């Protein structure tokens, strides 16, 4: 599956093994389109009504504006530390370290929490399809091992696996949509979802939280800078393609499932069967066999997201180790596969510990492990996106005016405002994501500012006690290169 790399330098990730397509697969697979649609979109319809498709399109537009400034800055950031490196370049090294700690917390909670969803979905599918009753912790631990195995074999292997899984999960959703439209839906095809009365209905503010959560991980293209071919070209291109695809695809699929039940009946259908809405639609318009296949592909979709987020976490960890902010041994790279295997081991051990705690306490894998653990990660990523947007403006206006363009600065300012508003909406609507008490919600959301405060305190300590380490925050290995002439922002 993966051979040795004869030109692989010690502690160096594989170079030039990911093209634009591979990067897109990594990013979109992290978002888990089938899981987002079958598992979350029915709730969005129930809360926001038939205008739900617009929330996904709106989130995509905001993130595209953000990507204009974000990718313009890519060519001037040598580190593969993504948000951490960008914020350090634009807002300073203290904020950079705050971002690093917040990113580690956010990506880990996103990845580990999803093991709860994987276990719940796999347990139900094994029981329904094969008549097997497997304890959810056993399933979760098996998934942890499988993620570690593929990640260990190298990013090129992981990209191929994610590519296959992404094609399958996207294909089954398109099959459902084609079946619905071919039959004319429940009562004819209409465009009521895009009418002003639907778009500005009272529940649509809350649905934006689901919209932005559906794009989690899109920025991870820059984490693979070391492994990308011609990163100044492939990273911006992959970022735009990924965001554009997800926005249009999500909007289209949600609109199609609304047609499956009819604009007048779909909200009631979603309220009556949140978890089964998509399976009922595909079973009705395509066949029961397709519903069974969708059940199986939901499992592979969740696994793809776990693998993609695991790869993102290990690249962050590797970048921090290279910058001297984590022990050097954590950043060691496998001599044959070129994977940050020690960072993979550390993340795997953390996942095992968290899963074990929830299993021992008898917690539900979906309502507790998934929803409670994931929520701080979703909030944290939006905060990081907002800080990064602000950092791009600061970078181009204060630190590198020569590289500034009116489009990049304007995009940075607009996306800063829009993402700040989106973060507020998400926090205000967090109960929709957790289905928990107000006290629990406060604790979960508070993990984000608490992490930032700890990061700030540690950064100030580093500046005073370890100035050399502080100076290396966000610097990477110094491979920043000027962009070739003619490359669009």
Automatic annotation (TrEMBL):
Keyword Transmembrane helix found: yes
Subcellular location: Cell membrane
Topology term for the membrane: Multi-pass membrane protein
Keyword Transmembrane helix attributed: yes
Keyword terms: Cell membrane, Membrane, Transmembrane, Transmembrane helix
GO cellular component, one term: plasma membrane
InterPro entries, per database record: AA/rel_permease1 (IPR002293), APC_superfamily (IPR050367)
MF terms (GO), sorted A to Z: transmembrane transporter activity
Ranges that cross the membrane: 23-48, 54-74, 95-118, 138-155, 162-182, 194-218, 238-258, 278-305, 345-363, 369-395, 407-427, 439-462
Domain of life: Bacteria
Protein name as it appears in the record: Amino acid permease
Species in which this protein is naturally found: Amycolatopsis balhimycina DSM 5908
């Amino acid at each position: 599956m993966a051979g040795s790399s004869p030109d692989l330098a010690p502690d160096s990730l594989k170079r030039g093994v990911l093209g634009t397509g591979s990067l897109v697969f990594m990013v979109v697979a992290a978002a888990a389109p089938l899981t987002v649609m079958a598992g979350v979109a029915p709730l969005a319809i129930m809360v926001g009504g038939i205008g739900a498709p617009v929330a996904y399109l709106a989130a995509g537009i905001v993130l595209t504006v953000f990507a204009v400034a974000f990718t313009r800055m890519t060519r001037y950031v040598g580190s593969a530390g993504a948000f951490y490196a960008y914020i350090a370049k634009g807002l300073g090294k203290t904020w950079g370290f705050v971002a690093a700690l917040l990113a580690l917390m956010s990506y880990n909670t996103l990845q580990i929490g999803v093991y709860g969803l994987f276990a719940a979905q796999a347990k139900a599918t094994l029981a329904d399809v094969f008549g097997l009753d497997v304890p959810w912790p056993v399933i979760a631990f098996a998934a942890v091992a499988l993620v570690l195995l593929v990640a260990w074999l190298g990013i090129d292997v992981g990209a191929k696996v994610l590519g296959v899984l992404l094609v399958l999960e996207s294909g089954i959703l398109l099959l459902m949509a084609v079946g619905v439209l071919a039959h004319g839906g429940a009562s004819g095809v209409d465009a009521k979802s895009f009418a002003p009365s639907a778009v500005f209905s009272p529940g649509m503010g809350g649905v934006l939280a689901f919209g932005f959560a559906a794009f989690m991980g899109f920025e991870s293209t820059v984490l693979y800078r070391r492994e990308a071919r011609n990163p100044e070209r492939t990273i911006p291109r992959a970022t735009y393609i990924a965001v554009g695809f997800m926005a249009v695809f999500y909007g289209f699929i949600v609109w199609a499932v609304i047609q499956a039940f009819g604009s007048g009946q779909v909200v009631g259908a979603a309220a009556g069967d949140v978890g089964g809405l998509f399976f009922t639609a595909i079973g009705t318009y395509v066949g029961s066999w397709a519903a069974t296949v969708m059940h199986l592909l939901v499992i592979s979709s969740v696994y793809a997201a776990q693998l993609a987020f695991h790869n993102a976490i290990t690249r962050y960890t590797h970048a921090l180790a290279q910058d001297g902010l984590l022990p050097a041994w954590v950043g060691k790279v496998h001599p044959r596969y070129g994977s940050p295997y020690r960072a993979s081991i550390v993340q795997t051990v953390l996942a095992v510990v968290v899963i074990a705690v929830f299993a021992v306490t008898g917690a539900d894998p979906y309502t507790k492990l998934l929803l409670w653990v994931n929520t701080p990660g979703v909030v944290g990523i939006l905060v990081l996106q907002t800080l990064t947007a602000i950092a791009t403006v600061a970078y181009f206006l204060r630190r590198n005016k020569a590289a500034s363009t009116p489009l990049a600065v304007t995009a940075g300012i607009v996306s800063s405002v829009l993402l700040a508003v989106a973060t507020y909406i998400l926090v205000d609507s967090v109960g929709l994501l957790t289905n928990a008490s107000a006290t629990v919600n406060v604790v979960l959301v508070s993990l984000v500012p608490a992490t930032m405060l700890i990061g700030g305190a540690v950064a100030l300590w580093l500046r005073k006690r370890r100035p050399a380490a502080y100076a290396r925050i966000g610097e990477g290995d110094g491979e920043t290169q000027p962009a070739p002439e003619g490359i669009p922002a």
